[in-house]
Design a protein that fits this description.
alpha+beta, Alpha-Beta Plaits, four-stranded antiparallel β-sheet, four-stranded mixed β-sheet, 29% helix
Length: 135
């Protein structure tokens, strides 16, 4: 794994599938078209878990990958982790890693998921690192 200084390590407090599914419903929404763009994913590296912004995935998969992550992107990731922690799904290893966490995120209610399209902003084919996150 390429070293990325913005990764936030987490400890899972529930089943990994619950966290993956929940994170897939949090991000930026186009409410008029009912399209959700998930901002983050759960990433596992050996025995460690991280919540990563989708732009960080490009750097994990390839050192010369897309590197256009903004402060707002990182704050959005922090806000998502803050929510997951408040809901009792995970805990952060270092609480300072999720400061600040005041960026707005849309949480698609589970019972509305069937009415929405979830669009991922990267192509998962051919990338083993990323395929695991989608299962």
């Amino acid at each position: 794994m390429n070293e990325i200084k913005t990764l936030v390590e987490v400890k899972l407090l529930c089943d990994v599938k619950v966290i993956k599914e929940t994170v897939s419903r949090i991000g930026i929404a186009n409410k008029r078209k009912k399209i959700l763009y998930p901002s983050c994913y759960l990433y596992q590296n050996f025995e460690q878990y991280y919540i990563v912004h989708f732009k960080e995935l490009f750097l994990i998969a390839r050192a010369s990958g897309y590197n256009n992550i903004s402060e707002k992107d990182l704050e959005r990731k922090n806000s998502i982790i803050f929510c997951l922690e408040n809901w009792g799904l995970l805990s952060t290893i270092n609480k300072d890693d999720i400061e600040p966490h005041n960026e707005y995120v849309y949480v698609l209610p589970h019972n509305e998921k069937k009415d929405w399209e979830i669009c991922h902003k990267f192509n998962v084919s051919g990338t083993e690192v990323i395929k695991w996150m989608m299962n």
